[in-house]
Task: structure prediction
Amino acid sequence: MNGLILVGADGTSAGRAAISWAVRRAASVGSRVMLVHVVDDEWGMIGEQSISELHPSAFELVEKDAVFARSINSSVTVTTRVLLGDPMVELGVASREVDLVVIGTHKTGFLHGRAFGSRSLQLAATAWCPVAVIPEGSSIERHGIVAGLDDSDAGRAAVRFAAIEAHRAHEELVLLRAWSAGSGTSGTDADRTDTRVRDAVETLCSESVALARSAGDDLLVRTRTLRRPPAEALVDAGISAELLVIGSSRRHGSQMSALGPVSHDVLLNIAGPTLVVHGDTVADATVTALDQPIRRNQ
Result:
C-alpha cells in the first residue's frame, strides 16, 4: 500500500512499547510511522467545538510520544494526528489507509485471566489491515517467527505473512499446529479418529511448508505439532518468539467485532509481540513486504 504504520498513542508505558516496536520495524522495512491519539468521545459529548480548544493536552501528549519515537531512530519519518471519537472505531477506520496498525497492551499472563481490554480485541477483529499487539515489558531476547496453522484462508494468510517476515529478518520460521484430544469416543473409534486427525495435520503441515517457501527457497522452515489446546500452545510459543502471527477469520453481522476463540484467548494472555491477520486483508501487506529490500533487524 503506502508504506505507513499507524500506532495508537496514549502516553502510557504500553503505548511506548508499541511505538518502540513500530519504529524499529519501520526502520527495517523502509516505512513511515504515524502516531494517532484519539480523544475519547464515544458518547458524542464534545460536539462541534475544536479539539485543540477542549483538549490541548492531547496534542502535547502525541508530540511527546513523537519525540520519543524519533529518539529511537531519527531516520524514520514520524508524523502525528489527533482524532475525536471512540478510539478503537477511529483506529479501525484509519486502518483502511495504512499497511499495519500497532497498539500496546498491559499483559495479564493468565490463560483464563481477565481481558487486557475489550476495545483492543475489537480493533484486532475489525481492522482492515494486520494488527500487531505489543505487550508492555517484553524485553527478553527473542528469536524466530511463529505462525499458527489452521485450514482456513486466515490461517494461510498467517503463514504467508510470517514467511515473508522471517525471510526479511533472516529468522527461522516455525509453523505450529496444535489440537485438543477428542471427547466422547473410545476404543477403536477413538483410534480411527486420532489417525484421521494426524493425517489431516500432516497434510496441512506439508501444504503450509510449500506455501511458506514461496517467500524464498533459502527460508529455514520447521514444523511443530502438539496435542494440547491451541491457545495454550500458541501463548507458550509466543513467550520467546520475535513475532507470533495468527489468523482470525472475518466474522459478519452481530459477531463482526469478535475474534475467533483461539485468537481471543491468545490475545487475552499475550506473551510477546503478536500479529493478527485476516484472510481478506493480508494481500496488500504481502505485496508491500515483497517490494521491500531484505534487511537484517538491528
Q: What stands out?
A: The radius of gyration is 20 Å. The chain has two domains: 1-105, 140-298.
